[in-house]
Amino acid sequence: MSQPTPSRRTLGLTVAAAACGLLLAGAAQAQQAPLKVGFMLPATGTFAALGDFIEKGFKLHVQEQGGKLGGREIQYFKVDDESDPSKATDNVNKLIKRDQVDVIVGTVHSGVALAMARAARESNTLLIVPNAGADAITGAQCAKNIFRSSFSNWQPGYAAGVVAAGKGYKRAMTITWNYAAGQETVKGFTEAFEKGGGKVAKELTLPFPNVEFQALLTEIAAQKPDVVFAFFAGGGAVKFVKDYDAAGLKKTVPLVASGFLTDGTLEAQGASAQGILSTLHYADNIDTPRNNAFRKSFALTYKANADVYAVQGYDAAQMLAAGLNAVKGDFTKRDALLEAMNKAVIDSPRGKFSLSPQRNPVQDIFLREAKGTNNELRGVAVKALADPGRGCRS
Ligand code: BEZ
């Protein structure tokens, strides 16, 4: 028996119903499929330990939420960026094109992060920067899909300048690696220090990640400034602090530093670091229930003490969670997700913070003193410091 031929109208309805079914099934699948998070962090080189703690911090928050954010399981992907800007575009494209991740979390090094931001803007991939301070990321190169859970280089530098000028120092020398983070941190320091009546007499630099400090330390000893401002981090910071002490400078020329000089490094720096004053958006012994609970949870999970990098990774996950919770895990509701992330108040171990219109934390920058293996809180250097976000147009 032959089948009756369906009318055009019946056929149209059938096709529409099938398409509708497919759409619904697709939406349900999008709700259920794990969200792909790609870590692009250093696993080797002078910043390797920093990348490790960022990843640990991020995963800790996800674990505390039962392994899900906004109801979505999280699937992780990883690339070691080696803190090498020349490999950054290829590396980030492994996550964007090969792994097709939904979100990128990275990185530590400002030069690498600038290349990542370019790729994220071009591909419209959501990027959360959990450390790198390159000012342009939430400045001239800002974009609606690029967020930072950490700081801009200008912020801790500026706060250190306020502290050094407030102590009455008049003549400073600065010392750092010659790349975006070093240059911009020194610029922030100089802006505040000179506004406060001081003068930066000389800027000393060496290429990243070199650690041959001797010639520069000899120059400091000869010039005898009132204060030295330094930015180094990770393995390089350990070597610098030890060399500064061994050169006899610790006793003669006070150091005021960006807090990265002594964060995550105090155990290795030992006696050489004791007493160093620094400015940062975190201090180990912030005595709040939130920070105490975070530090306890981190220590229990990883058998290690949390540091600023762990906090920044943890808060990157909190920022993503704020967006995903607002859309019940539906990543296709992109505008609502981005808006919720931008408006979120993050309950961070450092203290609650909100984001500037350019999507960088507006936060207290603390004055800390290195004591034992802690960077102890000595006060607030600058309250609710917002990066100026110069040049950001979106
Ligand atoms: C940076 O390159 O932006 C950076 C690296 C380590 C610590 C802080 C900042």
Overview of this protein structure:
- By secondary structure, the protein is α/β, with parallel strands linked by helices.
- Helix content is 42%, strand content 22%.
- Strands 7, 8, 9, 10, 11, 12, 13, 14 and 15 form a nine-stranded mixed beta sheet that branches.
- Helix 3 packs parallel to helix 4 and helix 11 packs across helix 12.
- The longest helix has 25 residues.
- The N terminus is likely disordered.
- Benzoic acid binds next to loops.
Features:
394 residues; alpha/beta; nine-stranded mixed beta sheet; 12 helices; 15 strands; globular; disordered N terminus; binds benzoic acid
Helix and strand layout, with pairings?
Elements: H1 8-32, E1 35-41, H2 48-64, E2 68-69, E3 72-80, H3 88-98, E4 103-105, H4 110-123, E5 126-129, E6 146-148, H5 154-166, E7 171-177, H6 180-195, E8 199-206, H7 214-223, E9 227-231, H8 234-246, E10 255-258, H9 266-269, E11 277-280, H10 289-302, H11 308-326, H12 334-343, E12 346-348, E13 351-355, E14 361-371, E15 374-385
Parallel strand pairs: 1-3, 1-4, 4-5, 5-6, 7-8, 7-9, 9-10, 10-11
Antiparallel strand pairs: 2-3, 11-14, 12-13, 13-14, 14-15
Helix pairs in contact: 2-11, 3-4, 5-6, 11-12
The structure holds benzoic acid (BEZ).
